[in-house]
């Protein structure tokens, strides 16, 4: 969720050591992003991080504290980590100022994986780690793209905790509180650093939000790869009581592995909070387990 009116084309102010900006041509768009690779050996696999609505790829390389960055942590643990600005954000905002639909974004993401593999060593293959609207894109992608290894998503469910009409009436401050939760969940400097990450949500993307529950019901039974979903303790956008999560789990009839977990001491924007390192470690441990299970 956006915290200011910072433009989609505004570059992040900085990035962590070992993380470098990159451009990737995919499906007629030039996508910007951030890349971190293992320093001493080929990658075990490649984690592709997909940001949420109103954010950019730097969400996964938080600058308020060194422990926040998924990119540096993943590279230290032997994974290549690629965080892409989704279509309509970053470099591609000029090419797709209105953004793309979920299905169109999924097609671009699939093309981006193919393009990245042509120029980089990817190890055993691709795993997706996604947040919020990026989780919707990732779920859509894995339902239509065979051969991906696993998906970990946070901040995305199947039924909203606030109706669309009510959300339209929410004051900006109330929407901000739903996304960020208690201020004590974040290290000092978080919101100043986030000014360089947030961006307006493109209109075609925004139009997809109320359609998600119906779209989810169609795609969930088609997902047939290991899946992990995480809900923050202070998640306010999605229903996530025990019965809600049981109903959610029942939708994934083909997933060979399904883990649904709660992240304590966190709100919707987990990867920018104090709980980021714990969440990222659990996600990477899940990916490691998936690699071990798939080993010949």
Q: How are the SSEs ordered, and which strands pair?
A:
Layout: E1 20-26, E2 29-36, E3 46-50, H1 70-76, E4 80-84, H2 102-119, E5 126-131, H3 133-144, E6 150-154, H4 164-169, H5 172-180, H6 190-194, H7 203-206, H8 212-219, E7 227-232, H9 242-251, E8 258-263, H10 276-294
Parallel strand pairs: 3-4, 3-5, 5-6, 6-7, 7-8
Antiparallel strand pairs: 1-2, 2-4
Helix pairs in contact: 2-3
Summarize the structure in short.
The protein has 296 residues and is an alpha/beta fold. It has helices at residues 70-76, 102-119, 133-144, 164-169, 172-180, 190-194, 203-206, 212-219, 242-251, 276-294; strands at 20-26, 29-36, 46-50, 80-84, 126-131, 150-154, 227-232, 258-263. The protein has one domain (20-211, 218-283): Rossmann fold, CATH 3.40.50.
């Amino acid at each position: 969720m956006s915290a200011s009116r910072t433009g989609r084309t505004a570059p992040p102010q900085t990035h962590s050591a070992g993380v470098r900006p990159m451009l990737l041509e995919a499906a007629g768009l030039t996508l910007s992003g951030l890349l971190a690779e293992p320093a001493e050996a080929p990658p075990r696999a490649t984690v592709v991080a997909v940001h949420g609505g109103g954010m950019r790829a730097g969400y996964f390389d938080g600058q308020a504290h060194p422990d926040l960055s998924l990119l540096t942590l993943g590279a230290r643990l032997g994974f290549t980590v690629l965080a892409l600005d989704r279509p309509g954000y970053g470099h591609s905002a000029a090419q797709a100022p209105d953004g793309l639909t979920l299905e169109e974004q999924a097609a671009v993401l699939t093309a981006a994986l193919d393009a990245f593999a042509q120029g980089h060593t990817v190890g055993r293959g691709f795993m997706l780690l996604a947040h919020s609207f990026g989780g919707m894109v990732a779920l859509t992608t894995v339902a239509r793209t065979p051969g991906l290894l696993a998906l970990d998503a946070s901040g995305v469910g199947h039924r909203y905790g606030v109706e669309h009409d009510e959300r339209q009436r929410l004051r900006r401050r109330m929407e901000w509180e739903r996304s960020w939760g208690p201020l004590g969940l974040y290290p000092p400097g978080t919101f100043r650093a986030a000014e360089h990450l947030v961006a307006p949500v493109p209109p075609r993307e925004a139009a997809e939000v109320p359609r998600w529950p119906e779209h989810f019901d169609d795609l969930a039974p088609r997902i047939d790869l290991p899946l992990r979903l995480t809900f923050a303790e202070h998640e306010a956008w999605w229903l996530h009581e025990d019965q809600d999560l049981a109903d959610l789990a029942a939708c994934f009839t083909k997933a060979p592995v399904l883990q649904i977990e709660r992240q304590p001491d966190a709100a919707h924007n987990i990867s920018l909070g104090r709980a980021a390192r714990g969440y990222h470690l659990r996600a990477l441990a899940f990916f490691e387990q998936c690699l071990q299970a798939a080993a010949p």
